[in-house]
Design goal:
The protein is an alpha/beta fold. Helix content is 32%, strand content 21%. The protein folds into two domains: 130 residues, Roll (Urease, subunit C, domain 1), CATH 2.30.40.10; 283 residues, Metal-dependent hydrolases (TIM Barrel, Alpha-Beta Barrel). The longest helix is centred in the middle third of the chain and has 26 residues.
Length: 422
């Protein structure tokens, strides 16, 4: 009983903070306009007011000139579904078979994942958590990166259907038999996808329902988006043609070669999650900076663009670095920030409440002691739906542990070594 009472008191003290307060004396980056010195009034879990200068008379949290940003958003990640790449038991981002539209990511989300805490401590407060590994991998969920269970960490239960596009390239130097075999496999995979979407379109819900066709139907009818993962010009071309033929609403996850389709993507209003800013080596005939320059090209053509770290759970923490590199190669401060806040919110369908600091939106913020798109500044505080969040994580604990050990060893060494020899 005493232990239970102590836990209750600790929980109460952890969450004890005013329901209406002002975050003041900060450089406010709303992700809608250029930064300014001002304040944000929070009422419960909602932004009540954003203004310049001094705040109104109420309880004030002085941010001492630090920079306040909307919570960062990773639009395509396996965070919470994958922990250690080399341990199969910790991986839950894929399922056997090629037809899994009834799977929903949030049910497999691991709330206590160490990687969730690491990403949160770098300012990433939301993620589109999407299955992978099969042609029709399942439905992605928008998850909060704070909370106790997957239930209270769910922002949107199902936001899109994840499709891993098949490799449609055939090596020119391959023997005729190998070419024929590869072409046959490509044809079978594309037929499988087309047939699955056609069957889902014509599916009629009966008293005894088919969970797979029922789950796929809204995506086949174009009422919800399909996230298609591609890499390379041939895959992108094939996916765009297929989506047009089947009248599918697409979000393109793309890397190499996506800049070649910028005008078409803009004309068709297809948003892009660009995943190769760090994970791509230029080919011999490409400029060394091509993958850094691509976000600027897409943005200039009018493509709604978000940045992500190629769906890797352990790299979600790099989101701010991705935007910083895009800025270094041509994007403006505001454009680069929008690539990891407002734009992914639009893609995930949550821009009505996330992605910017505006009146009426969710009070989820990140505080940084400098420009968050630079490498050195540290994320010092964060708020999720009006509540201040814990920014402790395993990496910080290990850093402090081994730093203390290093200081201990240096102290022992100094004791054993005469001062005139040091």
């Amino acid at each position: 009983m005493r232990v239970l009472l102590l836990l209750l008191l600790l929980t109460t003290s952890l969450w004890a903070q005013p329901t209406r307060y002002a975050l003041a004396n900060a450089v406010i980056h709303t992700a809608q306009e250029e930064a300014f010195h001002g304040y944000v009034v929070v009422n419960g879990d909602t932004v009540e007011e954003v203004g310049r200068g001094d705040p109104p008379a109420l309880e004030v949290i002085d941010l001492k000139g630090s920079h306040l940003y909307p919570g960062l958003i990773d639009a395509d990640s396996a965070i919470g579904l994958a922990e250690v790449e080399s341990l199969r038991a910790t991986l839950d981002h894929r399922e056997v078979g090629q037809l899994n539209p009834n799977l929903v990511a949030r049910y497999a989300f691991r709330a206590e994942s160490d990687l969730v805490a690491v990403a949160r401590s770098q300012g990433v407060l939301f993620s589109g958590v999407n299955p992978s590994g099969s042609l029709l991998a399942g439905q992605g969920s928008v998850m909060r990166l704070w909370g106790w269970t997957w239930e209270d960490m769910t922002e949107v239960a199902s936001w899109a259907m994840a499709v891993d596009w098949p490799d449609v390239t055939v090596a020119l130097e391959a023997k005729e038999g190998a070419k024929a075999k590869a072409l046959k496999k490509i044809g079978e995979q594309l037929f499988f996808l087309t047939d699955s979407f056609q069957q889902a379109k014509s599916y009629h819900r009966e008293p005894i329902q088919d969970v797979k066709w029922g789950a796929l139907q809204p995506y086949s009818l174009g009422t919800a988006p399909v996230v298609i993962r591609t890499d390379g010009r041939e895959q992108i071309r094939s996916a765009l043609d297929w989506s047009k033929e089947n009248d599918v609403r697409v979000v393109l996850v793309a890397g190499r070669g996506v800049h070649l389709f910028a005008e078409e993507l803009a004309a068709r209003k297809i948003p892009v999650i660009y995943v190769s800013l760090f994970n791509q080596n230029p080919r011999e005939f490409e400029r060394y900076y091509l993958h850094y320059w691509t976000p600027k090209v897409l943005q200039e053509k009018g493509v709604t663009l978000a940045l992500s770290a190629k769906g890797l759970a352990f790299d979600a923490r790099e989101l701010r670095d991705l935007a910083g590199r895009a800025r270094a190669f041509g994007a403006s401060d505001l454009e680069a920030l929008q690539m990891i806040t407002l734009n992914p919110a639009k893609i995930l369908g949550v821009a009505d409440r996330l992605g910017s600091i505006e009146k009426g939106k969710q009070a989820s913020f990140v505080l940084c002691d400098g420009d968050i798109l630079e490498v050195a500044p540290v994320v010092t505080r964060a708020w999720g739906a009006g509540r201040e969040l814990d920014l402790e994580d395993k990496q910080k604990k290990l850093y402090l542990k081994y730093k203390a050990r290093l200081m201990e060893l240096r102290g022992l060494q100094n004791k054993e070594t005469p001062s005139d020899v040091q």
